[in-house]
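Hi U.,

Before I forget, here's the chain from the pilot set. I'm dumping it here mostly so it's searchable later in email.
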Amino acid sequence: MTKLIIILPVALGLVLAAIFTPASPWFQGEPPPPSDVTQPIPPPPAEPSPPENTLIFSEEELQNRVNDLVRQANQSSQVAIDYLQVKLDEDRMLVSAKGDILGHHLETENLEVYFEARTVSASGKISALGGHPTLIANVEINTEQGKPQVTVKRFRLGGLPLKLLGISRDDIATTINQAIESRGLMLPVDLEDIRIEARQLIVQYKEYK
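Structure:
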């Protein structure tokens, strides 16, 4: 059970870091690759540009990023993710997943994830070790010069207090941050605000020099 408690927030931290690692061209304003079409095509009507230093993800765009993460994760012999699906509701994200991590089978359906500023809260049933405990987690994501740093504000799995296992929130945060650092995950910007509005994930950031 101790190992499982560590695995869950590590997986959550890596997923969040991967989702919010934007592709460089989005920030640098690079043009798309040239098209093979020889005949000119009239451009579609221009859509309003998002506010400065703001990224807006549709559910489809977000799912594509998660699919990329799954493909990368499944290259490891310690990970076998069957699926990881995200849905954007009016003010929350619903996460459904099934797979094996470090020899443990984990499954969840419609795990509720809320965003406020740089704080991420998650709650829902987790199927693991033959049981169905409720996961309640609250983490804060900060970045300094593009380096993600996760602080665990709250973590509970079922009715089992962490202190009985000799584990603290700081221990979990350290494990998450070490896992992020080992993957070399860096953001080209510093995160300012993450929220969901009208079924879109909105990320505001500031550039650093």
